[in-house]
Specification:
Blueprint lengths: L14 H10 L6 E5 L5 H10 L4 E6 L2 H10 L5 E3 H6 L4 E7 L20 H13 L1 E10 L14 E6 L23 E6 L2
Parallel strand pairs: 1-2, 1-4, 2-3, 4-5
Antiparallel strand pairs: 5-7, 6-7
């Protein structure tokens, strides 16, 4: 099952989150991953505006996105999803921005189990955690589910929340039922 099918993106679309995340890794080069990199605007944003010295890699599932990113970012490792799963790279920061969801398909439903079930989200979080170095940061924004509901919540310490929430995408609980509360946790540190 594919996560977000919409490839819409924009340069510097989440400036506060990028700035806050990069400030947490201080002024040292780090390995950064854009998970669901689409056409590479997130890669360009991080390299141009926030952390020029860092290696910024990307992963996507769509061949057209991968090909465009590879042509634009020869210095970055651009992988398709199956390559990403089998490689042993570890990252200091992983951004999963507006990718662990099915927007707009989930906008009007009360239960998303037929569209994008919690188990698929939880499995993706597990894969991302396995690619994250100890002490690394996982940034999940605009997801259909809460990271705190996953079995990985005990090894992911929330380090940055946002009063206005973790995105406009509707949230669901682990039984796939829509919830109406604001979920504020966005940036997590791997603590185990």
């Amino acid at each position: 099952m594919q996560h977000q099918k919409n490839t819409a993106t924009a340069y510097n679309r989440y400036p506060d989150i990028f700035k806050d995340t990069i400030s947490l890794v201080m002024n040292r080069p780090v390995a950064v991953l854009s998970f669901g990199c689409s056409y590479g605007d997130e890669i360009a944003t991080i390299k141009d505006l926030y952390h020029r010295e860092s290696q910024v890699d990307g992963v996507d599932i769509l061949e057209s996105c991968i090909n465009e990113c590879r042509s634009k970012f020869q210095s970055s490792l651009i992988l398709d999803y199956s390559e990403f799963i089998t490689r042993n790279e570890r990252y200091d920061v992983i951004f999963a921005m507006s990718v662990l969801c099915r927007w707009e398909e989930t906008e009007t439903v009360d239960n998303c189990s037929d569209i994008y079930p919690f188990e698929f989200f939880e499995k993706a979080i597990g894969i991302l955690v396995s690619k994250l170095r100890y002490g690394g940061l996982l940034v999940v924004y605009n997801a259909n589910f809460r990271v705190s509901d996953t079995i990985y919540s005990d090894i992911l310490d929330p380090v940055k929340s946002y009063m206005d929430g973790s995105g406009f995408v509707h949230k669901f609980d682990k039984e796939n039922n829509k919830i109406n509360s604001v979920y504020q946790e966005v940036i997590f540190r791997k603590i185990a």
